Amino acid sequence: MMKRLSSFANPAPSPPMPANPTPTASNSTIVELKSGSITLPILKVYSSDLTEIETQLQKKLGSAPEFFRHAPIIIDLGDMPDDMKAHLDFSGFLKILQIHTLAPVGIRGGSAAHQKAAQAEKIPVLADVRSENPPAAQPKPAPKRTIPPPRPITATTKIIDHPVRSGQRIYATGGDLIVMAQVSPGAEIMADGNIHVYGTLKGRALAGVQGNLEARIFCSDLRAQLIAIGGHYRTSESEDDALKGRLVQVYLRDETLTVDPL
Amino acid sequence: MARIIVVTSGKGGVGKTTTSAAMAMGFALRGHRTVVIDFDIGLRNLDLIMGCERRVVYDFVNVINKEANLNQALIKDKRCENLFILPASQTRDKDALSLEGVERVLNELSETHDYIICDSPAGIERGAHLAMYFADDAVVVTNPEVSSVRDSDRMLGILASKSRRAEHNQEPIREYLLLTRYSPQRVKLGEMLSVEDVQEILSLHLLGVIPESKAVLSASNSGNPVVLDEKSDAGQAYMDVVARYLGEEVPHRFIEEEKKGLFGRWFGGKA
């Protein structure tokens, strides 16, 4: 039932603390707003049965009465079944806490009525950040969230270190393609991602063939018969001779293939 | 174990058979036991160029079909005892060749020879594929004009992906560029691609440049491989090619130096 919240970003006002030492510095700011985190116990409630709550609380607190004397706590009703929430006697619940000298400094979860009642008692309502805190395996454990195993890291970049000849087709599925030699006329290189050619590109180069409009083509000498990015293509007829022999990149700008020197 | 060399190009008429005959004779003259195989089933030109067409009894297809054994089909050259010719069939087509059959014949020849030269047919179909499939080295014969260069590039792509070495992830076929029918004057006039142009397009190790030469045609017509014409420029160029293939450092001739020496006078020493 009781749970430690390891790191709790505290957007709520600070809990009443035992008499703070009076600030001695007189000339400096005496009021400062700072964000900090304080570890607070969270009281999770799974049932609206006040008698049962009282019994179990007694038992829990009995094991360390000094520790919980005037202890600030957060009330968490998030795991309580909705039908029970409706029946929860909130003021009665607060009384039980009072009896056990617990000082509720915030509430989260719970119905709108609970939150309203809490605010009436000057208990701030906290944002429900329960997703960060897996529910405790108590009376009604919520279905365990299975954390997907980390995906195996696969190198999706394909590297070709020999000339791509006329009639050859190379397709880098799901990633980039790097060609460290020339691409002859009549050859076709394709990639789902970017294409890099460290050599003369004379064939056809199609980047982002699955529709990735962000893909680019980088090339140390662009003389391609055809270049395409995400289906937008153009042929060598429209190539600019001034860019021949220069390091260039090809990308899409406003759905237009743009060739810029690098 | 023999080294298997395919002489290929993609395009027809560039000088594959001339090169096969010349290189085979060149290897044989230098003392290597050499066999040259005509893969151009149905067209059969090699035996003409080698001058042994009248001695053909059994051919490559007969051996593959086990209708004859290799010794019956191999023709021993009369000019050089190290040279053998395995002729093509003129009455069959390229479908008569099977991958297993070619492999068996090559394995058998490999035991008794140093070099096996496969004279590939033009094109990129079955005959050309079988000729290059088992090769260790490839001599890509190219003329200095764009369509031939393009076809050679295509053939290089096939060599890199569809050979036995490629399919078994072995060391790739060693590829050599042989530029034939080269005319320095026409290069100078801008009518022909230069050696540099072709090398830039193909980025390939240059094995040699064979100049355009009347000696080639007369050699073919007389059935004597051009290397036997020691005075001819083409014959010398082919012997250089053989020497370079065998690992000797031989400077390239008939490209620049000859241009200056022979043609420089014609152009008033502009070079």
Order of helices and strands of chain A: EEHEHHEHEEEEEEEEEEE
Biggest β-sheet strands, sense, barrel of chain A:
6 strands, mixed
Strand content of chain B: 15-25%
Question: Helix fraction of chain B?
Answer: 40-55%
Regions of chain A with pLDDT < 50 over 5+ consecutive residues? Answer: 1-21, 131-137
Total DSSP helices of chain B: 13
Give the oligomeric state of the chains in this entry, treating copies of one chain as homo and distinct chains as hetero: heterodimer
Uncertain segments of chain B: none
Tally of alpha and pi helices of chain A: 4
Radius of gyration computed on alpha carbons of chain A? 33 Å
Description:
The complex is a heterodimer of chains A (262) and B (271). Chain A is an alpha/beta fold. Chain A is 15% helix and 26% strand. Chain A has helices at 50-62, 82-87, 90-99, 112-120, and strands at residues 2-4, 41-44, 72-76, 103-108, 158-160, 169-172, 177-179, 188-191, 195-201, 204-207, 217-222, 226-229, 232-235, 248-253, 256-261. In chain A, the strands form three sheets. Chain A has a six-stranded mixed β-sheet with strand order 5-7-9-11-14-15, with no helix packed on it. The longest helix of chain A is centred in the N-terminal third of the chain and has 13 residues, at 50-62. Chain A is elongated. Chain A starts with a strand and ends with a strand. Chain B contains 13 helices and eight strands. Chain B has an eight-stranded mixed β-sheet with strand order 3-4-2-5-1-6-7-8, sandwiched between helices. In chain B, a hairpin with a 6-residue loop joins strand 3 and strand 4. In chain B, helix 1 crosses helix 12 (233-245). Chain B is globular. The mean pLDDT of chain B is 91. The chains are: A alpha/beta (262), B alpha/beta (271).
